[in-house]
Specification:
- The protein is 28% helix and 30% strand.
- By secondary structure, it is of the alpha+beta class.
- The protein has one domain (2-126): Chemotaxis protein chec (3-Layer(aba) Sandwich).
- The relative contact order is 0.27.
């Protein structure tokens, strides 16, 4: 089932002082269906910058393999290796929250008001954009 999991939608949330944020309920249900325990996610800076990407371990490993396949040498580029060196594991707790590593929050400059964006197999967390009235 994990290989078919697709995250979609946008959800505004608030990052607290301890860098905790609630995972959207539809995504939590999907993650809980994929595992018997609290889900463990791989958290990494987005290649495009300014955001974090979270994937299940299985999805993360598949994504890294795909990155390498798209390189002419068949190996990861220096930028990709640098991004991967910042990856951290986070666990979805019983309240449906994750605690983001402070080093990653600072690296991508996340603010208090954030938005979750579904991007296929990735859950992207970025700063909330001001909406025009």
């Amino acid at each position: 089932m994990a290989s078919q999991t697709r995250m979609s939608g946008e959800f505004d949330r608030v990052l607290d002082d301890r860098f905790r944020v609630v995972v959207p309920a539809p995504w939590r249900r999907t993650l809980m269906e994929m595992t018997e325990e609290n889900p463990v996610l791989m958290c990494s800076p987005a290649l495009s910058g300014g955001a974090l990407e979270l994937r299940t371990t299985e999805q993360f490993n598949r994504w890294v393999s795909q990155l390498a396949k798209h390189e002419p040498t068949g190996r990861l580029s220096g930028v990709q290796l640098s991004m991967l060196s910042h990856c951290k594991q986070v666990e979805v707790d019983s309240r449906g929250s994750i605690t983001l590593p402070d080093v990653l929050v600072r690296l991508v400059n996340l603010h208090r008001e954030v938005t979750w964006k579904g991007n296929g197999d990735a859950m992207v967390l970025c700063n909330r954009r001001r909406r025009q009235h």
